[in-house]
Amino acid sequence: VRRWSAADCKDPLKVEPPAGLSPHLVALDLKTRFPNVACTLSREGLVLTPVSAKPQRPSASRDDVIRDSLLGFSRCFETLVRSGKPLVGHNMLLDLLLLLHQFREPLPRSYGRFKTVLGSLFPVVYDTKHISLSVRQQASPWLRELLTGADLFALHSALANVPVPFAPKIQGAPAVLRAHDAGSDAYVAGAVFIKLAHVLAQQAASALPAPQRALAWPQHRAAVKAFANRINLIRAQCHHVSLEGPDPPAEERPPWLCVRSSRSQAEITAV
């Protein structure tokens, strides 16, 4: 295409898009690289014709609409990265792996490289599964009882009417909450995070001699700071992955499970 354009040919040029690439994206790329060339799609491939250069208007064009429609969720991913806002999820290790692999780069072979890349994309990550499990191990009896369920929607139901002063009111819920529905899961994870942060912040504030009052986001953020960038691990010797700094030491587990029958003779299958 470059040689054809430099030769100032008047005849159209037919180009077959490379295998595996969208013809629309190839056409948009050619229009960007060669502003004096018009590119149209046909059954034979791409047809390039020379045109006189025209000043580009700043308004959105049909090409922009096509490009946006082809990018899809990549736009959401880039918005999340550019915002620098905390990323909240529930049991989200697999979600983070998919985001990194599908929208940034193939998963690194090095575990250290994986944490570095993920930290550069999302500086602050909160996993509500890790927060709820950690709080349940350290909290007062009533809070341990409240957080018995580790399922996301069970946590949401338990925290819906928690008797804590100045509980935040969360709006914007979908009409119907369905588990494993993208919109519902995102809303419920965010709601659980806010409620957990409020419960922890309210507990810290109640220990102070000052009278209780509505809390601001800096107080909620301080209450969950210890759980930032820690992602829950399922059925592992480590409870979580630390995206910043070293991971917690692995627990030692017995290599054998010893079973003793109270009867003199018994088959192991019966036990």
UniProtKB/TrEMBL annotation:
Show the Gene3D superfamilies listed in the entry.
Answer: Ribonuclease H-like superfamily/Ribonuclease H
What does UniProt give as GO cellular component?
endoplasmic reticulum; nucleus
Q: Which InterPro entries match?
A: CAF1_poly(A)_ribonucleases (IPR051181), RNase_CAF1 (IPR006941), RNaseH-like_sf (IPR012337), RNaseH_sf (IPR036397)
The record's listing under Pfam families reads: CAF1 (PF04857)
- Report the domain of life of the source organism: Eukaryota
- GO biological process: what's one of them? nuclear-transcribed mRNA poly(A) tail shortening
Molecular function as annotated in GO: 3'-5'-RNA exonuclease activity; RNA binding
Q: What protein family is recorded? A: Belongs to the CAF1 family.
Task: Write down what this protein is called.
Answer: Putative polya-specific ribonuclease parn-like domain-containing protein 1
Q: Can you name the source organism? A: Ixodes ricinus
